[in-house]
């Protein structure tokens, strides 16, 4: 069974390579977290407004957050930007970082990568870790500034040293892939561990892969599944898929096919094609779920429409046999041709 699980792991990794460019500007999350965890009373809002109007940069920055989230004041993104600009012009690095983010997103202001980089640079030069990480992505993607992978790495490293988990994860990816820095799998694992300790589910997923395949760390299926589980519990579909496989094959977890299909369902509902395919297989055989060919075909269709050749092959087989769907040799041939084309395309990459 372990060989089957490892095969599942490798095949899925080929279909679902995450790559580097997954970082997103997280200011919206900051705003929402601030509102949820630190909702201001009327007295606190009045105090912030008074201090901001008196020219205090930190309170101007805070007032921008209040207007952006509608916390204690009417939601007004234009006013939020106005207050952040006041604070940023006084050198407030947090306001400069948030302005860089909104210019990149075009949220409350017209999208302007060059202006975004300008503000991120000011904040990054003052040591703001979020700005350093975001500036790294600007250099990596060539948005608002000339593409420069070495500078991207430099800024990610600065942010990572300060403890920014997304920058740590990006460095782990960079050392794992080995395109913008010499490949060093041990260093990749080192950075992923730092990020994973802070709850970064991308890094936890990557560590699961590293321990499962013995890349940069000793091969250890139990550790691999432990990291997949931490990531899966945060809702990451790829980790949910692998955790399902661990339960289904009894590799790193006690065999429990009902639990396995439960995790595959979570991943499948998020659009993970391999989970959709295996969930279809489970329904077709009645393993972990009641046998139900209609549901099997439904999940295979979802996976096939995303270009998964194994699902396309199974659909073709169903239409050729005609037991569970009306026999249709034309449809069967269409799905098989799609499967062949995808497989040939993958073999060329």
The outline comes out as elongated
**SSE order, as H and E?**
HHHHHHHHHHHHHHHHHHH
Structural category is: mainly alpha
Share in β-strands? under 5%
> Mean pLDDT across all residues, rounded?
90
- Radius of gyration from the alpha-carbon trace, in angstroms: 24 Å
Q: What is the terminal separation in angstroms?
A: 29 Å
Q: Name the CATH class of the domain at 266-349.
A: Mainly Alpha
Could you state the CATH homologous superfamily of the domain at 266-349?
Answer: Tetratricopeptide repeat domain
CATH topology of the domain at 266-349: Serine Threonine Protein Phosphatase 5, Tetratricopeptide repeat
TL;DR of this structure?
By secondary structure, the protein is an all-alpha fold. Helices cover 72% and strands 0% of the residues.
How is this structure best described in words?
The protein has helices at 2-15, 27-37, 42-53, 57-69, 77-89, 93-105, 113-125, 129-141, 149-161, 165-177, 185-197, 201-213, 221-232, 237-249, 257-269, 273-285, 293-305, 309-321, 329-348. It is mostly helical and 349 residues long. The chain has a domain at 266-349: Serine Threonine Protein Phosphatase 5, Tetratricopeptide repeat, CATH 1.25.40.
């Amino acid at each position: 069974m372990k060989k089957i699980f490892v095969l599942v792991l490798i095949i899925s990794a080929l279909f679902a390579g995450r790559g580097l460019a997954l970082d997103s500007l997280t200011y919206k999350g900051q705003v929402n977290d601030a509102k949820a965890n630190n909702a201001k009373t009327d007295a606190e809002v009045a105090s912030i407004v008074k201090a901001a109007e008196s020219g205090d940069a930190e309170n101007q920055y805070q007032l921008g957050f209040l207007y952006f989230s509608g916390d204690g004041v009417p939601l007004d993104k234009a006013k939020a930007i106005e207050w952040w600009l006041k604070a940023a012009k006084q050198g407030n690095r947090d306001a400069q970082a948030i302005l860089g983010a909104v210019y990149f997103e075009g949220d409350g202001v017209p999208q302007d990568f060059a202006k975004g980089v300008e503000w991120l640079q000011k904040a990054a030069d003052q040591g703001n870790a979020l700005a350093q990480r975001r500036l790294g992505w600007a250099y990596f993607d060539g948005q608002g500034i000339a593409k420069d992978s070495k500078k991207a790495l430099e800024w990610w490293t600065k942010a990572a040293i300060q403890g920014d988990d997304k920058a740590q994860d990006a460095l782990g990816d960079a050392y794992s892939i080995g395109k913008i820095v010499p490949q060093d799998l041990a260093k990749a694992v080192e950075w992923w561990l730092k990020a994973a300790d802070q709850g970064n589910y991308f890094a936890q997923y990557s560590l699961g892969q590293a321990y499962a395949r013995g890349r940069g760390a000793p091969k250890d299926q139990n550790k691999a599944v432990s990291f997949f589980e931490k990531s899966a519990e945060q809702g990451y579909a790829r980790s949910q898929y692998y955790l399902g496989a661990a339960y289904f094959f009894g590799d790193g977890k006690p065999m429990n096919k009902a639990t396995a299909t439960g995790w595959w369902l979570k991943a499948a509902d998020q659009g993970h094609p391999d989970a959709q395919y295996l969930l279809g297989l489970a329904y077709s055989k009645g393993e972990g779920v009641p046998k139900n060919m209609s549901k099997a075909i439904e999940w295979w269709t979802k996976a096939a429409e995303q270009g998964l050749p194994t699902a396309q092959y199974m659909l073709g087989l169903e239409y050729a046999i005609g037991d569970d769907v009306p026999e249709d040799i034309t449809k069967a041939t269409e799905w098989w041709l799609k499967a062949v084309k995808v497989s040939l395309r993958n073999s060329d990459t």
